């Protein structure tokens, strides 16, 4: 029989089972999309009048219970935008753009908690963070009350970007001097070329006036 073979003996099978690494169960991280009620309709069907007369099965298929993460993201963006929107038709103000970026950033943060080696999405998240910081900085300078209300409604904290500093070395100074010299020489060549073109245009205009006279 099979168990008579040395490799199939119960002792070796038990040893193999003990030698297997224990599989860790991945804990489900809380998501900022968890507060969306499953019975809420998707963004494209929420305001349709016909939804009041459709069957419950159809409503369930068009609700967030059957929706993908992308469709849930649309609803979450709309919810955050409603908190800071200036008017019902406001879709492009700085406050609305900050709300949309906040939803994207939180989604990327949750994704990177599960996949910390995803460098591409980490780069996208840092770009969105920098863009949101610049928008909040503009609101802070122009309208401080709107800036405070936006941070409060979206539950975000503004931190200004730190000034960029670099250690000055002799090699860096030589490289900078060379770049400045090359830039100046290039500007001189461009100025000479523009002067030559200007003189050619003036000569053509003078010749055209003489022909007309």
Q: At the first level of CATH, what is the class of the largest domain? A: Mainly Alpha
Helix content: 55-70%
- Radius of gyration based on Cα positions: 32 Å
Q: Please write the string of helix (H) and strand (E) elements.
A: HHHHHHH
> Total domains, how many?
2
The chain-level structural class is: mainly alpha
CATH superfamily of the largest domain: S15/NS1, RNA-binding
User: How many strand elements?
Assistant: 0
CATH fold descriptor of the largest domain: Helix Hairpins
- What's the assembly state of these chains? single chain
- Shape assignment: elongated
- Mean pLDDT across every amino acid position: 82
The appropriate CATH architecture of the largest domain is Orthogonal Bundle
Distance between the termini: 117 Å
Low-confidence stretches: none
Please report which band the strand proportion falls in: under 5%, 5-15%, 15-25%, 25-35%, 35-45% or over 45%. Answer: under 5%
How many H/I helices? 7
Tell me the major beta sheet: none
């Amino acid at each position: 029989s099979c168990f008579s073979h040395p490799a199939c003996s119960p002792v070796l099978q038990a040893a193999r089972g003990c030698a297997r690494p224990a599989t860790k169960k991945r804990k489900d991280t809380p998501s900022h999309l968890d507060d969306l009620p499953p019975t809420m309709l998707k963004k494209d069907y929420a305001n349709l009048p016909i939804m009041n007369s459709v069957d419950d099965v159809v409503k369930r298929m068009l609700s967030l219970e059957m929706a993908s993460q992308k469709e849930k993201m649309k609803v979450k963006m709309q919810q955050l935008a409603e908190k800071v929107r200036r008017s019902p038709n406001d879709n492009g103000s700085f406050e609305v753009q900050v709300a949309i970026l906040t939803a994207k950033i939180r989604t990327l943060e949750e994704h990177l908690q599960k996949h910390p080696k995803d460098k591409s999405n980490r780069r996208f998240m840092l770009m969105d963070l920098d863009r949101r910081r610049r928008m909040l900085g503009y609101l802070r300078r122009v309208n401080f009350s709107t800036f405070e209300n936006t941070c409060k409604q979206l539950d975000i904290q503004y931190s200004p970007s730190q000034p960029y500093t670099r250690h000055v070395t002799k090699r860096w100074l030589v490289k900078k001097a060379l770049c400045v010299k090359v830039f100046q020489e290039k500007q001189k060549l461009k100025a000479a070329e523009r002067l030559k073109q200007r003189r050619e245009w003036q000569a053509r205009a003078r010749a055209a006036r003489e022909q007309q006279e």
